[in-house]
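[Q] Does anyone have a clean structure-token version of this?
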Amino acid sequence: MEADKPEVAILSALLQTRDRLLRAEIFERRLRSTSKPTRARFATTVTETQVALEQAVLRGQNIDRELLLQLRLIGVEMEAYVA
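[A] Here you go.
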């Protein structure tokens, strides 16, 4: 599935990386070099996933808080690369 969807593969790599500098390198090497539609799909995937987790929190559901934190960071950091 990830091979068919580069935006998913990039997000997966970013979620596995805690180091800010390594994430910046992934953004630079992998995201910036993709097509504009792929970058747009990446941004949509990040945003939709984050919103789904935020809504689950509001409903009182137990979620992976670390995942939510990572998505929040990626959401902020991606802005320079998806435009």
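[Q] Thanks! Anything notable?
[A] The chain has a mean pLDDT of 94.
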